[in-house]
Sequence to fold (454 residues):
Amino acid sequence: MFEITQIPIPDFGAPEEIPVLPPRLYRDRCRRVLERLREAGLDALVVYADREHSANLSYCTGFDPRFEEALFVLTSDGQATLCLGNECLNVVSALPVSTDILLCQDFSLMGQDRSKSWDLTPLLAKAGLRRGMRCGIAGWKTLEAGRLEVPFYIVDLISQRCGRPPTNANDLFMHPQRGLRIVNEPEQIAQFEYAATRTSNSILKLLRAIEPGKRCFELAAHFDGGGLPDSCHPMVSCGRRIPNGMASPGNTRVVEGHFLTSAFGVWGALTCRAGWLTAHPEVFAKGTGRAVWPIIENYLTVTRAWYAAVSVDASAGDVWAQTDAARQDGLYTLCVNPGHYLHLDEWVSSPFWKDSPVALPSGCALQADIIPVPRKGTASINMEDGIVLADARLRSQLERRYPALHQRCEARRRFMIEVLGYALSPDILPLSNIPGAYFPCLLDTTWVCRHRRS
Fold:
């Protein structure tokens, strides 16, 4: 079904600067959070954040903590309070939302001053929490049976203040159908497209720099987030067998005949490519290649089925079923769900599971995340890119407000359809600058796989 041929990757271009989200967008978000809070029967919401888990807080306020933890408290009557440590207090300036700022030195790093305001208890009172309130707390993960994942002492203090334990409120932001962070505004989509151009251009530069003898950390020098924070650690690893594709780049050298995997993620995007370190398609006809090529071909069949099934209002369960039906079970299993939602965090949640009832909404950002795990032998094959689903109305908004973005997405669509042979709904806006391009020969990336023309 697929052939390897020499295809030039077009220069799709990139935004000249980081798109900035306007203050009104954050105010609208806080208004929607308040509406959901009241609909859920809650009197208050506490949003916890630390350096790794800051997406919910940043979504509400445009602020993410540096070095420390932070809490954002929002009561049903609209009172908003941000509790910060020493260093975050020094970096927070003009926030896009109206909120009180309180110093909580318990959030500060070890050994720093705690003489002014170390205790969170009186700050929760100042933030509007009162006895009898029903409080939800959002960190970064919805857990079974409503369990809470944020630090115990914070949960304990909220419980003491309200006279009852808080409930897990992460679904307000992250539920695969109802979560507020699942549907993105045009401004956020523009920022995510900037992010995707940075990650995909970085991966392409890395792939083109591969040559025998180079160390993984030398290849990782091509990662350039363009000012955006990482959404995960940078990944480059190679070897005859790669036990963990999530390994950080180290001293291992590129060896012809081995495998290599690479991934780079910043807020709003991740791009991954993994494959065989060979220079010419002829090697797939002999030796290790005879075992590798069937996996590549079926993997590309599965990926093509995923793209063909995804559209606005499509059933995520149907996408899962069509993807799984294309997979040759005897060759490999899948490591994780075949795709997930993207946001500031690399994985918000996934709507793709067997019999999933989720209907994919317009405005959602998705990552094709189909990771094969061979049942026999060894191989490292992967291709991850980000897309946005946009109905006709959203596409019209983007074309009007971001004409260059619209043109880049249309050019990527044409490349995927006309050159690589994908079937795409009009709803799919590819954000990556190597959209759907799989490089089977990592020592010569002029070779690309495409669907064989009949």
